[in-house]
Amino acid sequence: LLKKKADALTMRFRQILAKIIETKTLMGEVMKQATFSLTEAVYAAGDIGPVVMQNVDKAQTKVRSKKDNVAGVTLPVFESYTDGSDTFQWTGLTRVGQQVARCKEFFSKGVTLMVAL
C-alpha cells in the first residue's frame, strides 16, 4: 500500500514538474511581449501609470484555491478566474487605447501563467 502511494505521488510530481517547465518557458516569452507592449504604450501615450491607478478600484483577476487528493495526500491547486467588470472596456477606441489594451492583454496572460505556476 505504501509503495502504491509513493508511486502515485512520484507520478504526480513528474506531471507537475513537466507543467512547471512548460509554463516557465511560455511565461518568459509572454513577459517579454508584455514588457515590449508596455514600452510601446508609454511611448505612444506618455506616463499611463496614474491613469491606470485612478481607474482601478478592485482586482479583476482573482485566485481560487482547491485541494487535490493524490493517494490520500492533499495537494493545493490554484486557479485564476475573472470577476467584476472591465474598467478599460472603452480604452481601445484610439491608437493609444489599442496599445494600452494590448499591454493589458499580455500582462493578464502573464498573471494567469503565474497562478498556474
What features would you describe in this structure?
It is a single chain. This protein is of the alpha+beta class and 117 residues long. 62% of the residues lie in helices and 17% in strands. It contains three helices and two strands, in the order ααββα. Strands 1-2 form a two-stranded antiparallel sheet. A hairpin with a 2-residue loop joins β1 (61-70) and β2. The longest helix has 44 residues, at 2-45. The two termini are 30 Å apart.
Given as residue ranges, the uncertain stretches (5+ residues, pLDDT < 50) are none
Strand segment count: 2
Specify the number of helices.
Answer: 3
Kindly estimate the percentage of residues that lie in beta strands according to DSSP. 15-25%
Helix share, percent? 55-70%
Terminal-residue CA separation: 30 Å
User: How would you sum up the major sheet?
Assistant: 2 strands, antiparallel
Radius of gyration: 19 Å
Strand arrangement, major sheet:
1-2
Mean pLDDT: 82
Mass-distribution shape: elongated
Oligomer: single chain
Class based on secondary structure composition and strand pairing: alpha+beta
Taken in chain order, the helices and strands follow as HHEEH
